[in-house]
Amino acid sequence: MTQSTADPDGTPGRTGSPGGPVGLAAALVPPGAHVLGDPAAPVTIVEFGDLECPYCHDAAPVLRAVVEESGGTVRLVFRHFPLFEVHPYALTAALAAEAAGAQGRFWEMHDLLFAHQDRLDDVGLAHWAQTLGLDGASVVGEAAQEHGDAVERDYLAGTALGVRGTPTLFVDGERYRGRVTEDGVRAAVAAALAGEHRGPRPSPGQGA
Fold this sequence. Notes:
- By secondary structure, the protein is α+β, with helices and mostly antiparallel strands.
- It has helices at residues 20-28, 54-68, 90-101, 106-115, 122-131, 141-145, 148-160, 182-193, and strands spanning 34-36, 43-49, 74-80, 168-171, 174-175.
- It has eight helices and five strands; from the N terminus they run H-E-E-H-E-H-H-H-H-H-E-E-H.
- This is Thioredoxin domain-containing protein.
- Belongs to the thioredoxin family. DsbA subfamily.
């Protein structure tokens, strides 16, 4: 993996649509993606995020509120983009979240890790997993490394789409610009619902 720098607004530049709408859909929402909200929601927000990133921490409740208050019109897809040279625990946190996701607890682990960014070493990761009723050993070390391909897939997809910092958002395939605020994201969602840009459709399969 090459490395990027953290970016509070997640908007380092405009990205095209690799391979057109179908190619963009596959790049943004792969099979087994982690989806929050109605899987059939007409608007998809894709976040490329880092679980140790303070800006992603701040964006998380904003995005959850947009999804939960959308009446089923918005879903959120989380993709890993660990800035491992800037955040020493970002990669192992991503692996732990994937390991929890394989056991049906991705979003719970996602929320716990953002809530406790000061404790993301292996001891902390194992502890947070245990609070979810999981075996702590299943989310660290060799067990977690089994999920490296999923994290790398996300990272490479982000790189191909021009992602350089976190959080970077795409709202129905359109890169979101500006700080992640409820008003800003809702405006982007409204534009998508108005048909101002075409978004990716759901891919087969859904992650926990």
